[in-house]
Amino acid sequence: MSTINERFFKYKKNRKVIQFKKITKIPQISKTRVAIIIPYRNREEHLYKFIEHFNNLDDSVLKGSILDIYIIEQNNEDKFNRGLLLNIGYLLSSEKVKYDRYIFHDVDLFPDQSIFELYFASPKKQIHYIIPKVEHKYNFEMYLGGVIGLSGQCFEKINGFPNNFFGWGGEDDALYNRIAANNISVYRPSIGGYELAFHEKPEKNSMNSIKQENVLNDLLNWKKNGVSQLKGFEFINVVDDSAALDPFPKSTNPNIKYFFYKINYLGKSADVDYRIVEEINRLNVPSKVDKLLKIKRSRCSKGTRKSRITRNCTAKRK
To answer: What is the pTM of this model?
Structure first.
């Protein structure tokens, strides 16, 4: 039987690739509703510079467009889970406004003016805004992280990001594979770029220790592990904390608004529904269970069953 390393090497050699299309000039900017979603923890200096940088961009190009920026902070001591935070950010933002484009954006990347303008152009195109360059750490063609803009329809078709990648690494590989599996066209600009904030490399204990296993499993299970599995559930703490932005620069453009959410999700497991079941069993206090659920369902969907304790739908255990 082959090892994880051998299987991963074979996958990398034979994986389905995305044929990127080039954007050679900034298309005409249209009136576009854009949500930027930022996964965040312990990067105060970068967030300060991010807001300051956006204040200094030429905002006249907005021309009636809307730019809402959602900072989604992981408020617990678990390893950072970028994919889960981005999924939650998508759900929180899409409940407020039906945006034309959702941009999943690292906090340490600051766009130049041409890239900023591209945020509001061609809203029906899926755009990876990072240009892989030899002199950057993003220097390989299959890189799909950093900053990517997708329509809501596309994001839901690929089921967003996986929820169970704890630690740095792997969620961008999963996103790449999900987009490739659905034969979705992705564009990249050939002009413009980003300033990358300096920071130390992540410590070894903060990395995803089972990245290869996660990525291989996601090739088969991506339809069962993503943004659609989060719908209808409220985590233990989802706090709208606008006061957290007080120490940072104020937006100088009325068309750019910032939202700040603190997320403390349930304990680690391979599936969100299992995490909820595990938490119910740990607490063993049925009267508190309603706090974990956003809605009660009268009927259960395929693959779920009624809990004897809560009478709510939970995933069937295999």
So the answer is: 0.83
